[in-house]
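input
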Amino acid sequence: MRCLRHALRSTPSPDWWRRVLLLAPCHRHAQSPTPGAVFTSDMISEATIERIVELLKLTNSEINCWQEWLIFSDVFYFLMKSGCIDFVDFVEKLVLRLQEDEQHILKTNHVTWLLAQIIRVELVMNALNLDSRKVETTRKIVSFHKDEKSSDPNSPQSILLDFISSCQNLRIWSLNTSTREYLNNEQLQKGKQIDEWWRQVSKGEQMMDYMNLDDRSIGMFWVVSYTMAQPACETVMNWLTSAGFTELLTGPNVQSTERIMMMLEVVPLPISLLSGFSINLCMKLALQMEDSMFSGQVPSIAMVETYCRLLLISPHSLFRSHLSHLRQRNQATLTKPGNTILVFEILNYRLLPLYRYQGKSKALMYDVTKMISVLKGKRGDHRIFRLGENLCMNLILSMRDFFFVKREGKGPTDFTETLNRITVTTLAIIIKTRGIAEFEHLLHLQTMLEQILATSQHSWSEKTLRYFPSILRDALSGRMDKRSGQLDKRTLAIQAWQQVETTVINQCTQLLSPSADPSYVVTYINHSFPLHRQYLCAGAWILMHGHSENINSVNLGRVLREVSPEEVTSNIYTMVDVMLHHIHLELQRGHPLQDLMVKTVSNLSFFIWTHELLPLDILLLALIDRDDDPHALRIVVSLLDSKELQQKVKVYLLSRGPPENWAQTGPFKRSELQKALGNHLSWKERYPTFFDDIAARLLPVIPLIIYRFIENDAMDAADRVLQIYASFLHYYPLNFTFVRDILAYFYGHLPGKLILRILNVLGKKVPFSDPFLQHINSTNATMCPPLDYFGTLLLGLVNHVIPSLNSSSKTAQTGDVSSSFARAPPTKPHLSSQPGSTNSLEGQKPFYQIQDPGTYTQLVLETAIIEILSFPVSPSQIVSSLVQIVLHIQPTLVQSSNGLHGSPNSIGQSSVLPTSPSGGSTDSLGSTRIAPSVPGLNASVFACRTGYTCQQLSCLLIQACGLLLAQLPPEFHVQLYLEAARVIKESWWLTEGKRSFGELESAVRYALLDPTWAAQDNTSTTIGNVVALLHAFFSNLPQEWLEGAHLIIKHLRPVTSVAVLRISFRIMGPLLPRLANAHPLFSKTLSLLLNILVDVFGRSTQPPAPVEASEIADIIDFLHHVIHYEGQGGPVQASSRPRTEVLALCGRAAESLRPDVHHLFSHLKADSNASVYAAAHPKPVQTPS
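output
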């Protein structure tokens, strides 16, 4: 329930909901249950009702939470439509819950409005028409109606809530005659006011002006969306087409005589108006807009923008996978190039983050790569191919976890050469910054690389490989070229060029001389070999001799437009190789480098700007892939410094409005096709652009350039590019992910100045804390931030990221209506010093405001990560600060208890054991041993309203710390293991040597209790807290990174006491069931635990005090159980059998154990069929003396 309540507050994607939800029994029929689904209909209903009660309490306390209601209604609609809630049962439970409340919290019509949103869902209509309890259900629905009394009666939402009862009565009246007698006649009569208003505003020829509606008109139109959705829909469509149409002119190179009409521009509907529409109207609008946009006429940008806004405001209820959705509606839709271009533009420039939020990026990537794989060898289709390729670049770069490059998983990829290279870079970023979550993905990595590289001749430079994660670097660094067995790509490329150079130069002389016969173009295209055609641009480069006028640009441009897109890509890569080789030859002949660079950039301007013969984005990617050459990146810097490119970007920024496209009021101005895309892409094109532009194509490319600059230690170049293009990168839809990942990828290698420049990419929309901004900009930035900063950081995660412990009913008892909602008073700005919080009054943000990273909880968590990664201090200092807070959190909270909800009396020392550390005898109870609060941490940091007692908060802060550390790079993990081992080894009651075995055993057993139990009676210990921290940390780590956990045991060895043995097992034990599907890692972990068992109970070991084997019977039981668990691959069954190799491992370890301990392993025989899981052990056989 805690998880469900958190989900309803933080709105994870529908994909997450589908994986965990069970259908309600009344909707299951013959459908098989979803594997892994855990939430029943009853649980969903209960959590949904709790959320309604929370929102009602907030509303009653005069907090403006309309946005929260809107977000919740979208999720509620999705849950109801998915069949996860039994509507009749839900209404009955909601009535009972609201009747139970002594405060009579139902004072407004928000519940009525919520039910009005779903009343047209088929499952709901069936319940109100066909269910035997339909009359009683209708009466209960009507009972939610209230007379709306708002402090602001003229606001749009107040007007909607005032009329919503009437809307619902009218709808129920039309559904079923048998329930009409229970409807409120007064509310039915009130419906006439709605009809009258609609007649007044819709009569005559005057069009409703959606940009100049007053608040009452907005509210009334929202009301109409519930009662007359179809007329409202037609009115909106009329507005979007009200400017009329014009004929799309045919360009000089277009031979088609087909007449195409294009809508003239109007102003798109503002998102503030759209957000109040009923979901039913939004669905009708989306479908009608699709019919209009893909009908053959060119829609206005306003219509396309309005359509995208609809999908963004209701991501749960309105999402559709466009390629399959449009094909289902009309198979012919995507056979028209104009329609495909429009869909690609919508996906690439508007809905990319939405697909990632939905978990549909991979499926979209597979579909689009399949489409462009057909186009890459097709002559002339450059525009749609390059747009699709750019979309795939963005999709690949948007991935946050491991992905397969083919849906089927076999054979070479459908990717282009460019996409193959970007995929390897993306895999490096994912593996290094986020890890590989599942062991099976590790097994597929080598196969994936073979698929990617099957059609690619590329290899990565040593400078790039040194930053790759070791698992990927090892797989790539040994890759031998198929033909020569060498790795020097420059040498191989030039050898291939020299073999065809004579032929290519002869052909290019005939084709590209200023006086060349134009008719030779057709001959060249039809009769030249593909091997020679891929060197066309290289030949042109050689013939230029630094003078572009030596080249027939008309013939060259025509050939490049007529050949296939993939041939153009090959031309770019080969031209770059030959160009760099030519520079080296000229240097050897004594020509100054500066003159050569000027000449090179001038020649490239001929291709890019003067005649627009080649796509700039692919050229830049080709250049940075040749970073093994010292001149390639210098050329990239010169191109990015060029006035032509900066002017293109400037024009783009001026024409696009603010980066938040959903906030633009318009009207939009459509760019001319040739100016937007250049000659190469627009030559035979007629269909206009919407959002596409040469500059926009660079948005995924510039971040990759920054990566390559840093890999090559060109920090000044990276700084300069970020400075020039900072405003431009605000338009990059994944700029938050870019900043987070680049800081993690190069952690420890970035100068402070460059870190600040990278942070500027985010603008001012990210909620960095004031202490962070002050510290990072101060002269003392190299000093570790104070503990107060880290304490507040963790508190921010507890408040906004960790699932709440409280339900609304519990919260109501404390009188704090806000604590279960956001756990910080939403009526006031959040603490300015709180990392991950904002000075906003909102508890939640709609998806369209936080598209990257997608949810508010993710925004808070990853903002905290960015802050930590930005500090120019060592990981050991940061980890030490966090661990210090965790170790002494309970006494720190005691000092701040006056500011917490928990009663001060409940915080006092009530146990016979000290706060920390714990001991097993009365000798350990001396007051001198009571743990102090954290030195240097101001206890008032925690004196805020969290809605938690001290005991609850201490546990949540440990969870938050574990979660945070798991998101950081492995450098932090190593330090955590070192620090945890140090804390355990230095614990006074393990080191002073005066304790008996019984005392230590008692202390350790108590110290290792679940920290939640320990917190309840204030007997938390440093060791208990550090073990709890490690468990919270492990539970959030990807499987690949779990192997590093062995380091903590290595630091604890040699283990000489049962106390440390028990602590080690408590640390590592919970990992073993999780590793059941990762056999190599399971075996390594099990072997490590068996080794420390031998350390203590080995045949030749002399323990400080004699210990009976029976004292560790529980540990042996655990080992018996876990190896059967691994053999089963899940919970142990009667038929479970361990793996033979695991039994052999246990057998080898048992041979080194004392006889009495060895006997406890006797049930684990080498024959797995004879091996028995022992819950109890036989007594060892007594040998006669």
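quick obs: Strands lie at 245-247, 261-263.
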